[in-house]
């Protein structure tokens, strides 16, 4: 079965508490396990950046559902490409709250989100490609 990687960025409609982020994380883990989706969600300064990996049809349906979530707005796909392998194989959904500044790869991840917000490249690469490279290693 072929897989795609879909990455989107969106803005939270309000500041998210740690308990709200934990609830999003738990729900995503449970739901994604049922539909063969893996990935990671990053939160920083009121912005979400999420990587989803799975069958293209599944990701398309999931993204439509995600777009309707009232906890965020201005969602936009920044990457949606076929992949030879999953980058986030260990997680049905990982969650990194960069607001706590304790995250592994903090500086690199903040730069990716800032670049994605403004459609700016990082060096010669898109923020999405940079994000995938960070976790490829």
UniProtKB/TrEMBL annotation:
Residues 3-94 form the BLUF domain. InterPro entries: Acylphosphatase-like_dom_sf, BLUF_domain. It holds the Pfam family BLUF. Signal peptide: none annotated. It comes from the Bacteria. PROSITE patterns: BLUF. One of its GO terms (molecular function) is blue light photoreceptor activity. This is BLUF domain protein.
């Amino acid at each position: 079965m072929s897989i795609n990687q879909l990455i989107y960025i969106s803005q939270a409609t309000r500041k998210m508490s740690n308990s709200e982020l934990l609830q999003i994380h738990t729900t995503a883990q449970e739901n994604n396990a049922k539909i063969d989706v893996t990935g990671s969600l990053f939160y920083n300064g009121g912005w979400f950046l999420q990587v989803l990996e799975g069958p293209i049809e599944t990701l398309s349906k999931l993204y439509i559902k995600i777009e309707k979530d009232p906890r965020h707005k201005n969602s936009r796909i920044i990457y949606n490409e076929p992949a030879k392998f999953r980058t986030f194989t260990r997680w049905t959904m990982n969650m990194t709250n960069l607001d706590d500044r304790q995250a592994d790869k903090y500086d690199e991840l903040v730069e990716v989100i800032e670049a994605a917000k403004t459609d700016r490249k990082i060096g010669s690469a898109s923020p999405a490609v940079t994000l995938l490279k960070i976790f490829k290693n």
